[in-house]
Specification:
Number of strands: 19
Helix content: 25-40%
CATH topology of the largest domain: Uridine Diphospho-n-acetylenolpyruvylglucosamine Reductase, domain 3
CATH architecture of the largest domain: 2-Layer Sandwich
Structural class: alpha+beta
Shape: globular
Distance between the termini: 20 Å
Length: 481
């Protein structure tokens, strides 16, 4: 076990927290993942301190649990699975290192939130591809590493997008940079020659960033990441398409994605839509709503929006749908103003009942209705009503695949309700997995569902883990480790 005084020598006494209140904040979270009390919380301020902490952990065989987002946390990935772990809280490393307008890329430390990056990017005429109305305390780097989907599938080419390069301290204590950032030369020398750390591939033909993404801190600690930005539109026009049946929206969504016409594009059921809007009239909304935006940029913005709107109108007419700027009195432009920035407090998923639990996985959009029917059947078995189940469908990779997310609304003060939702969460996860759902980001018991289906992957990952973290100090007990 690491000595507190040794940590204090690295970061200073004021950056090491041993009080019960500080430690208890990391012992568990709002998920169903049980945790252990950490030995302490340490808050490094730069890469050098992080590297020294990892090397000290190797010398003392101490467990490290990295964390970049401020609370509340909900997935269990930063809850210690072993006793006396050290929480490495990176939220204080919050510098926006650089924004390169010409190359549309930013470099940020792990403590930078979406709101902070968004404000800085807008000053350069750029915008951030964000998840759907993220928490105000959500770390950009944390979101990138967990491959959270953004609402702009048009710009999502690879599963790692919009993350580019990273600097990581592996479990061995070695510093490593991926992609174009690997060199030659220092970052400053690269910047002077016009480089922007935007290409994620490398060194050579490797793609080490993909090993780190989704690893939940079991391979190393990321100290900065570069992220793609997009142009800020001169005009952005928002539309809703309401439907009683989800199937009516599926082919239309495929058609506009194939043509790469909209920028933002997603589907919600009325429970999630109402939660984001902050309005209680759930039953007055259509059961399903497709939301999309059309953007005009520097050159001929009005003309661009006009011809794209007409093209989408023709595709909609072919499927019997009618896009509009509102639905049942709810403005699509108002919805856009809410989802193009971090969520106001309380966080939108907490508004209906005070708390929530998510179930999410990957599939294709045409298979989503089948998974929704399966989920609704499981919810019915456990006595969870339609009003307690939010559904969010996010096309990714330009519509090639789809992120499916169910949100179970729950009152955390109601013990019986929490127990019911926990049983539903577990049962639904198993049923969805058996039905073909791909849990690409397995938290808690989902790890067993995902890795039990592919022992070859487990063997390969353990071999990589043995190279990058041979003493097993990085977030032990997570994933298949």
């Amino acid at each position: 076990m690491v000595k507190i005084e040794d940590l204090a020598k690295i970061v200073g006494k004021k950056q090491v927290f041993t009080g019960e209140q500080e430690r208890s904040a990391y012992k568990d979270d709002a998920s169903f993942v049980g945790g252990k009390m950490p030995q302490c919380v340490v808050r490094p301020r730069n890469t050098e301190e992080v590297q020294k902490i990892v090397r000290l952990a190797n010398d003392t065989h101490s467990a490290l649990v990295p964390c970049s987002s401020k609370g509340p946390r909900t997935r269990g990935d930063t809850v210690p699975a072993v006793d006396d772990a050290v929480i490495v809280d990176l939220s204080g490393m919050d510098a926006i290192v650089r924004i390169d307008k010409r190359n549309k890329v930013a470099m940020v430390e792990p403590g930078v939130s979406f709101g902070a990056l968004q404000e800085a990017a807008q000053g350069e005429g750029l915008r951030v591809a964000m998840p759907l109305a993220p928490r105000r305390t959500k770390s950009v780097v944390g979101s990138l590493l967990e491959r959270e989907p953004t609402t702009m599938p048009k710009y999502h080419w690879d599963m790692s997008d919009p993350m580019c390069c990273i600097e990581v301290i592996f479990g061995t204590g070695d510093l490593f940079r991926t992609g174009a950032a690997a060199g030659p030369g220092t970052l400053e020398e690269q910047w002077a020659s016009g480089q922007a750390q935007k290409s994620p591939m490398g060194p050579s033909q490797t793609d080490w960033a993909k090993v780190i993404q989704g690893a939940q801190g079991t391979m190393g600690i990321v100290t900065w990441a570069s992220v793609k930005l997009e142009l800020m539109p001169r005009i952005e026009k928002a539309f809703f398409v309401g439907a009683r049946e989800l199937d009516a929206l599926i082919e239309f969504t495929f058609s506009i994605q194939r043509a790469k016409l909209p920028d933002q594009c997603l589907i919600l059921n009325r429970v999630d839509l109402s939660a984001i809007l902050g309005e209680g009239a759930v039953k007055e909304l259509p059961p399903w709503v497709l939301f999309y935006t059309i953007s005009g940029y520097e050159h001929f913005p009005e003309e661009r929006v006009d011809y794209i709107e007409k093209d989408i109108g023709e595709l909609a007419a072919a499927t019997g749908l009618s896009p509009g700027e509102g639905v049942n009195g709810t403005s699509a432009q108002k919805f856009l103003s809410l989802v193009e920035k971090p969520s106001e407090e309380p966080y939108w998923k907490s508004r209906p009942a005070g708390g929530f639990q998510d179930i999410f996985f990957l599939t294709t959009l045409d298979k989503a209705p089948g998974f929704i029917r399966l989920m609704e059947a499981e919810a019915g078995k456990h006595g969870v009503s339609e009003e307690g189940l939010g559904v969010y469908l996010q096309p990714i990779q330009q519509g090639r695949a789809c992120h499916v997310e169910f949100t179970l609304m729950v009152d955390p003060a109601d013990a019986d309700q929490v127990t019911t939702v926990e049983k539903l969460w577990q049962a639904a996860g198993e049923s969805l997995s058996d039905g073909g759902a791909f849990f690409s980001r397995p938290y808690g018991s989902w790890s067993d569902l995902a890795y039990s289906k592919c022992p070859d992957t487990v063997a390969a990952l353990r071999k990589v883990k043995g190279i990058l973290d041979p003493k097993g100090v990085m977030n032990p007990g997570k994933l298949c480790f």
